[in-house]
Amino acid sequence: MSQNYSSTKLFYKYYLNWIHLYKDDEVRKVTLDKYYLTYRKLRELAPNLHMNELDRQRYQKLLNDYAITHERQTTLDFHHHLKAALVDALDMGDLKHDPTRRAIIKGRNPKLKKAKFLNLYELRQLLSHLNLGPDINWDWFILLIAKTGLRFAEALALTPSDFNYEKQSVRVNKSWNYKEKIGSFQPTKNEASNRYVTVDWQLMSQFRTLLSGIEEKRTIFVSPNKRVFNSIINQLLEKYCIDLGMQVISIHGLRHTHASLLLYEGVSIASVARRLGHANTTTTQETYLHIIEELQNKDNDKILHHLSQL
């Protein structure tokens, strides 16, 4: 039952206590770090704001102050983190009214983004440029992500036991915590990220030879005692793109490339979402909206052509 009082505690202290209660030891470290980053910004922007002083105007001012130095999407994330705690506070009676209601999200104009994906011709050029020798290297890593769409941390966590040569699939049931000095296995991003990704017979044949003699449970690309940074692979990928005279993309851009090309080939959004390990198709639709809209326009042309033949 909700209590009939409102809290007089400082907002940033209330938020910190909420993190301790609901997020510590419950979410992945990378996610937890984001909550603590929000806490530090809250303490910086509103050190004297008490819970019982929170109303729509004060909350909007807090968001506006944050938005001065952040892009709109980052401001939206900040808002979502705070709102989660404030919804609980409202349920508990620690707030009388919802200060987040009808909040306006502002922010700086986004910086010019790097290209997110390559077209089919560019991808073929890149893959033919890779040094795919008899030993495992980062070029094999690039090829694997280009053909599977795995996340960076998911690919790092792969072991020989994850390759099913008969079914031509790669099992994803863990990721690699590469942000720590000593890397280790960790859960995947979400439950939907636990999946099997089918691949072509050629890739499976190549990796069957590459992984021969490697322990079944040993990571293929990383060592627990040697730290790896995604910037290393991104720099290598950047060099290849420049050598080939094409737009520079990141290793995560290969994941986008993989998904984009599948959508252009007519693979359903639901299938692409499952392959990428998205929790739902909404994430896929939002990420690849421009492609989906382009495909819908092509579909409309097909529909009109069909109707004209009746």
From TrEMBL:
Tyr recombinase domain mapped to chain residues: 113-301
* Keyword set, alphabetical order: DNA recombination, DNA-binding
- The residue stretches assigned to a coiled coil in this entry are none
* Gene3D superfamilies documented for this protein: 1.10.150.130, Intergrase catalytic core (1.10.443.10)
**MF GO annotations:** DNA binding
SUPFAM superfamilies, alphabetized: DNA breaking-rejoining enzymes
What InterPro entries is this protein classified in?
DNA_brk_join_enz, Integrase-like_cat_sf, Integrase_catalytic, Integrase_recombinase_N, Tyrosine_recombinase_XerCD
Q: Which GO terms describe its biological process?
A: DNA integration; DNA recombination
Give a single Pfam family match. Phage_integrase
Return the similarity comment: Belongs to the 'phage' integrase family.
Give the protein's recorded name: Site-specific integrase
* Organism, scientific name: Limosilactobacillus fastidiosus
